[in-house]
Amino acid sequence: TWTCDADTRGLHCILNASLELTPEESGIDPNRWPAGLLLLWEWHPGREDGEADRGPVWLWAKKRRGGGNTEPAA
Description:
This protein is mostly beta strands. It has one domain (2-69). The protein has one helix at 23-26; strands at 2-5, 10-19, 37-44, 55-63, 69-70. The protein is elongated and about 45 Å long.
């Protein structure tokens, strides 16, 4: 997903990937993240004071059953 963000004075690129975990294959406790995880990727232009340096930022988020997320994954 590409989006324009006025706060970054340019393109702020965002990609969300939804990962559904199969306990039988992954060995992960099925009760820990029952709806799966989201991998969030953002590209920062590095122009803002106090913001991330230029480049990508990777975050994990807990996916909610309704499709939303909680950051960071706990």
